[in-house]
C-alpha cells in the first residue's frame, strides 16, 4: 500500500521517499546536494539557471525571481561551506599583499592564526636574509600543534575564517600559496618574485 505524500511533496518541495520508497533516487539526490554544498557539483545551480531563463522567456517573472533567489541562497551556502572547509583544512599559507608599488606585506598563516607578518620594500623581496627568515617561520608554523576543528567552530573563528578566505580569494592585491614541508623553498621563490 502506497502512503500519502506530505504537503511538501504536494507543493513540489520533496521527492517523497516515504511515499515511493525509492531509496536509490533519494540517495542520489542527497549525494548531489552534499556535493553541491561542498562546492564539488554545480549542476543544481545550472539547472536552476535554465529554469530561471525559461521562466523569464515565458514572462513569468515571479517564478524567475524565485529561481534567482534560490541560486543566490545556494551560492551563499557554498561560500560559507568553503570558508568552513578553509578553517578545517588548517593549511599553512604564505601570502603577499601589495600595499603600493614600493611596499608589500608578507604573511604566514596557519589556518586563521597569523604566525608572521612583515611590511617590506619590494626591492628586499629578493634578499636571502628575508627568505631565510620566512623559511624559519614557515617551518615553525608547519611543525606547530595545529588546532583541528572537528564538529564545533566558535563564531569568532568562523568570522575570522570568512574574512581571511574572502581576502585571499577575492582581493586583487593579494597573492598566496599553500605550503607543505616539501615545497617551502619553491613557495618562497614564487611569492618573493
The computed structural class is: alpha+beta
Number of strands: 4
**Taking strands numbered 1, 2, ... along the chain, how are they ordered across the largest sheet?**
3-2-1-4
| Rg measurement, Å | 23 Å
Overview of this protein structure:
With 193 residues, this protein is an alpha+beta fold. The chain has 8 helices and 4 strands; from the N terminus they run H-H-H-H-H-E-E-E-H-H-E-H. It has helices spanning 7-10, 17-20, 23-37, 43-57, 61-89, 128-142, 155-170, 184-191, and strands at residues 92-98, 103-110, 113-121, 174-179. The protein has a 4-stranded antiparallel beta sheet, sandwiched between helices. A hairpin with a 2-residue loop joins strand 2 (103-110) and strand 3 (113-121). The termini are far apart. 15% of the residues are buried. The mean pLDDT is 81.
Q: How are the SSEs ordered, and which strands pair?
A:
Layout: H1 7-10, H2 17-20, H3 23-37, H4 43-57, H5 61-89, E1 92-98, E2 103-110, E3 113-121, H6 128-142, H7 155-170, E4 174-179, H8 184-191
Helix pairs in contact: 4-5, 5-7, 6-8
Summarize this, please?
The chain has 193 residues and is an alpha+beta fold. The protein has eight helices and four strands; from the N terminus they run αααααβββααβα. The protein starts with 6 loop residues before the first helix and ends with a helix.
Which structural traits does this protein have?
single chain; 193 residues; alpha+beta; 4-stranded antiparallel beta sheet; 8 helices; 4 strands
